[in-house]
Amino acid sequence: MPTKRDWFGLIASSILYYLTARAGMTLFSFQPANITLIWLPSGIGLVMVLTWGLKAVPFVVLPDFLANFPGLLEGRPWSSAVFHTSISTIADTLAPLLATQLMGRFMKEGVQDAKDLIWFLLYGCAIPVGLSSTLLSLNLLTGHYIESAAVFDFIKMLFFADCLGILLVYQIYIGWPDAKSLVWRPYQTLVGVGILLAFLLMAGVSTKQWWTYYLILPALVIAAFEINLFYIATLSSLSMLAMILTTAHGLGPFIADDPQEANAEMMAYVISAVLTIFGLSLQNSQLHRTENDKRKAEQEAQHDPMTEILNRRAFMPLLQQSYEHAQAHGSTYSVAILDIDDFKSINDRYGHAAGDMVIKHMASTIQKYCPEQGYAARIGGEEFAILLPNTHAIEAYQRMEQIRIDFMDTLTPCEDGQLVAATVSIGIACYQGQSGANQVLGDADAALYRAKGSGRNQVLCSP
Ligand SMILES: Nc1nc2c(ncn2[C@@H]2O[C@H](COP(=O)(O)OP(=O)(O)OP(=O)(O)O)[C@@H](O)[C@H]2O)c(=O)[nH]1
């Protein structure tokens, strides 16, 4: 059963399908031959079927029929118009259904990077649209809407208009998951590029100096390195729509004596521009994904997954660095080791999950009192360490006392509602010319051992 959200999406898409179909027939038709230069419903239909599967079919059929019927009724009996509109609606619905099947079979992951584009052009565009354009044109021929001599031109025209519609809409669709997550550069870049593109388009229209249109592609190419797929696809689609609109009104750089020639020139330019931007943007997305994955893997390798603070592996080199720095500059630093008291009995009494909550509570208390230039790490099961650069034993002792008292005074709330009380023992060592980083750590450990031995819940300094 479709959810409320699905119903909303289906109805909104269906309305958009109808409106873009009507716009294709009026705004984007090349006069006087009434050639539709772009058919956005082909892309909307594909996205609808990809998103909602067969549930989308009635929501494609209805707006398609309603949009096509008036044109096919003109001067004809109703029965004939209904018949031929039905056939054209079947052809229009068949294309996204077939595309979805082919893509599901041959490119399960969809379009991930630029090399998938060729397969998308084949399975998502060429095969299904080739079939539907042929069916639509034969339907118009048998209904005597067009002459037999015009069939091939019609197939060609429908093919390009539908493919372009799919390309423009599909690139925005696959960029959608990135829409919120990342604009690689600030919004200013996006706004700046938008203004530049609008300026180039308007400069062309107002001065009739159409060379400005040829600057749109390089502007988009440069922007594709800065802006993510969703926004660049939207900018590219809007610019191309503006270009098509200009051509449809007999303006722009693609005007020739023969409307077919002008149409072909514009189509060739727009399709190659869209493909260039789409491919480039996909490649950039892939690059950014790889970089993000690498950064995430590095982050994970250095952090404890439970407490999200540094792990032992990341902490030990920091200790060595501090030691070398103190030796070279005659400065000092302190190291503290913290161990939750009688943790085994907490686990035994409240359960392992409650024990985990106590560990997390310890980590958050440590972070609360760890100075900005300090480092906190979980170095064992219930054992933590803190490195305090440029800190003498007295200051370190005061900080550790704050941690000990806060942890003792704050009960840990567990998932089952229990409140668990726990304490911590802490050993501190300050660098005073020891013979190695491990020696300082060993001194802190020895102080911790003494704290455990003399009753727990206390902070002791070495020696
Ligand atoms: N819940 C939980 N327990 C852990 C984790 N890692 C280690 N432990 C437990 O921590 C306990 C540590 O016990 P001990 O080393 O005997 O120390 P203790 O009971 O804290 O006693 P003292 O250190 O002497 O105060 C063991 O029972 C471990 O199973 C963890 O990630 N989660």
For this entry, give a set of tags:
binds guanosine-5'-triphosphate, 463 residues, 16 helices, EC 2.7.7.65, Alpha-Beta Plaits, Arp2/3 complex 21 kDa subunit ARPC3, 3 domains
Describe this structure in words.
The chain is 67% helix and 8% strand. By secondary structure, the chain is α+β, with helices and mostly antiparallel strands. It folds into three domains: 1-176, Arp2/3 complex 21 kDa subunit ARPC3 (Orthogonal Bundle); 179-302, no CATH class; 310-461, Alpha-Beta Plaits. Helix 3 runs antiparallel to helix 4, helix 9 (216-224) packs antiparallel against helix 10 (229-248) and helix 10 (229-248) packs antiparallel against helix 11 (259-302). The chain is elongated and about 105 Å long. The protein starts with a helix and ends with a strand. The model has no long low-confidence stretch (mean pLDDT 91). The chain binds guanosine-5'-triphosphate (GTP). Guanosine-5'-triphosphate (GTP) binds next to strand 4, helix 13 and helix 14.
Amount of helix? 55-70%
Question: Low-confidence segments, ≥5 residues, pLDDT <50?
Answer: none
Give the overall average pLDDT.
Answer: 91
Give the amount of beta strand, in percent. 5-15%
| Total E-strand runs | 10
> Number of folding domains?
3
> Which molecules other than protein and nucleic acid are bound?
guanosine-5'-triphosphate
Q: Any idea what the radius of gyration is?
A: 34 Å
* Protein structure class: alpha+beta
CATH architecture descriptor text of the largest domain: Orthogonal Bundle
Major sheet summary line: 6 strands, mixed
Widest sheet, order of strands:
3-5-6-4-9-10
Quaternary structure state of the chains depicted: single chain
According to CATH, what is the class of the largest domain? Mainly Alpha
N-end to C-end Cα span:
71 Å
How many helices does DSSP assign? 16
CATH fold label of the largest domain: Arp2/3 complex 21 kDa subunit ARPC3
Q: Name the helix and strand elements from N-terminus to C-terminus, one letter apiece.
A: HEEHHHHHHHHHHEHEHHEEHEEEHE
Shape: elongated
